[in-house]
Amino acid sequence: MPRIPSLVTARPTRPAVRLGPAEREVIEFFVHLGRYLSLPRSVGEIYGLLFACGEKLTLDDMVARLGISKGSASQGLRLLRGAGAVRVSHQPGDRKDYYEAESELPALVHGLLRDQLALRIEHANRRLGRLHSVVADPRNGAPHGLSARVERLASWNKKARRLVPLVSTFLRM
Question: Which CATH number fits domain 21-103: 3.40.50.1370, 1.20.120.1460, 1.10.10.10, 3.40.30.10?
Answer without folding.
Answer: 1.10.10.10
